Amino acid sequence: MPTFSAPDGTQLSYRVTGDGDPVVCIPGGPTDSIYLGSLGGLSTCRQLIVLDLRGTGRSAIPEDISSYRCDRLVDDVEALRAHLGLPRMDLLGHSAGTNIATQYAALHPEKVSKLALIGPSARAVGVAITGETRRELAQLRKNEPWFAAAFAALQAITEGTGSDWEAVAPFFWGRWDATAQKHHAAGRPSNQEAVALFAAEGAFDVESTRAALAACEAPVLLLTGEFDLNSPPVSAAEFAEVFPDATLVVQPGAGHYPWLDDADWFVAATTAFLCG
What we know:
Number of domains: 1
Strand content: 15-25%
Shape: globular
Oligomer: single chain
Order of helices and strands: EEEEHEHEHHHHHEHEHH
CATH architecture: 3-Layer(aba) Sandwich
Helix content: 25-40%
Low-confidence stretches: none
Number of helices: 10
CATH class: Alpha Beta
Largest sheet: 8 strands, mixed
Distance between the termini: 30 Å
């Protein structure tokens, strides 16, 4: 895999798949970017340049672990853009990675052509998601055979009396089948330090980020799944209001990994935005 040097000297890796105009992709987690795969075949339409965040995948562990903080990861994205020689770029983020992409667009709006936020986390812009919102959304799955145990765990988590995140995993896929279970097992973060420090104090400056994004002229896609507990459609709609030119798309029957739930639907919707 190709590598480049971050501003602090940390060697970071990325993988390149597919053909066409490039899209720089930022994974969530922070975890190994391999879980993104080809984004359901998006790589048949566009060249995907997928970053391994520092301390994950084949990227090196930094000497300064405070650099795992979300806002500091923005500098790694800028270093990748410069390394690739792209004056401007289409930028795609998933889950926690959308916080990095969002802050990048706030700091470097002139370098973003289009911004695609998939299963968007809105911490960088201060959109709060209540436990009630998550529980109401979860009720859409009440006919699933695994619902009772998963909902009990979710209720305990949202009420602050439990922490069994493994039990609520089925809610994050549109179908909790063998493919989803394999994807879940492969996507667990291996660098818990990077996860713990991602949202450390100072990681988000909501007021300044929102102000900058209000002036960002790049078109923005916010795509979330109908069942996505991490990024409920109602919260994604609130997030979309931050941008002057945003399109909200809700993928039917999908969870937090929409390219896995219906690859054709996801690729069609994402390509229509990126190539439109």
